[in-house]
Write a structure and sequence with these properties.
There is one protein chain. This protein has 71 residues and is mainly α. 66% of the residues lie in helices and 0% in strands. It has helices at 14-43, 47-53, 60-69. Helix 1 (14-43) packs antiparallel against helix 3 (60-69). The radius of gyration is 22 Å and the shape is elongated.
């Protein structure tokens, strides 16, 4: 019976890990900005405009979150 060992390691360096962490943080920051912008724009609408969209004022946070981060 034959055995095969694969000892290749990952070529991830400390610099790659740091770069990845900064990239993930930048992506989270961009999503948070989009969420706040969406929430603020919806909050700035009148009750009539919100009703036309089918959104009540109490749903603004949920709608903004779903629009930004998905359902």
């Amino acid at each position: 019976m034959a055995f095969l060992n694969d000892t290749r390691g990952f070529d991830i360096t400390l610099a790659d890990s740091i770069r990845s962490a900064f990239k993930a943080q930048a992506e989270r920051r961009a999503l948070r900005r989009a969420y706040r912008r969406t929430r603020d724009e919806l909050a700035g609408l009148s009750g009539r405009e919100l009703a036309d969209l089918g959104i009540s004022r109490s749903e603004i946070t949920r709608v903004a979150h779903e629009a930004t981060y998905g359902a």
